[in-house]
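Entry type: protein chain
Record version: 2
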Amino acid sequence: MQSCHALREFVQEHPDIDREWHENSNYLALLSVPTERDLDALIAKASAKGVRFSVFREPDIGNEITAVVLEPKGKRLCGHLPLALGSGHGTNRRRDENTIRHSRSVE
């Protein structure tokens, strides 16, 4: 659910990027990190590289960051991350050519 909130934030904050992604790719990949600290590190890398992103903070757990969506060019920052909710924790990663969506499971 957290990734859905983050995706909605991204659509609101970056409509042009979302529209281009939807028309040209429309692929999603939900990936996971073990901790909020790892999520913070990913956000810092995206920011340093000029990759646009949107963050979702969960109000029920002290506004902790629970999910982030990166624009398509952010996929290179996520290639090492395992699929969220997948079996084998990364043994069957899908690296699509156009976009990566990232979420840390907290449910």
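Comment: Helices lie at 2-13, 15-24, 36-48.
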